[in-house]
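Lecture 7 notes: from sequence to structure.

We start with a single chain of 282 residues. Read the sequence below before looking at the structure.
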Amino acid sequence: EEIDEILGLEMGADDYITKPYTEQSLKTRLNRAIIRHEALLHIKQAISEGNYKKALTGCNEMISSGSRYAKDCIKMKGQLLFLLRELKEAKHLYESILDKKPMVWAKLGLGKTLVDMGDYEGAEDLMEEVLQEDERYIEAHDMLATIHTKRNDMVSAQKAMERATLISPKSVNRHRELAELADINQDDEVSLKAHQSAIKWGSNSCYESPQDYFNYVRKAADTTAGDSSIEAKQIVKQANTFLDRARKRYANTPEIEAQALMVESQLNLSQGQPDKAKTLMA
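Now the structure, written as tokens:
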């Protein structure tokens, strides 16, 4: 349930209802949500159309008119200023909010803004503050990984992303990012596990990609080259299983079969079978 709650927040949910609840209480909350959505619909439509200036104007009008949804508009205004690259204005807005109350969303917004302004130290301090309140704020972990990457501290970036994947294990893209960081750090064990997790959580979802299967096989070939240990054999066996699965899932797709043959060739070459590897490449 905790993981689903985090996933819900990541998908953009800004409220929730706890169990047990009655039909009437659910109906009341849904009606409120619909009314709120309709009141902000013109702003949301402008955002979906990429017309951020129009959306910003809509936010300012609702804020100045004292709308009951002014707080929602202030939150959107910060995001719009960031998207419009009006970073100083966004920074000023978030700081004015935080002067009144230490809102987590404002800290996250300010942190993101400071990163783009090159103030990595200020952004890192803010993210640490957020995580001291609650380790489950996944966006703070993401931002720390970004900050460390920009500083070229890839080890710290990997650690931040590892914490993020522990908190939100169903995020396919995070596992992919973790695999990339682990590859840079030559952390083969973490890389293999991250590639495998991307396959697991991506399966039968909109995030599924044949490249996750092939990335695992490529990494398996690299890590098991010249290794005849039991552990290496298990990795190779898993790689072959993933290859079979990829072929079945993407049958009758010539491009995928070509890639499958290439990575299979790579795997055979790493296992001291150059003739078979050459045949596969041919």
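The two ends are 50 Å apart (CA to CA). Keep this in mind for problem set 3.
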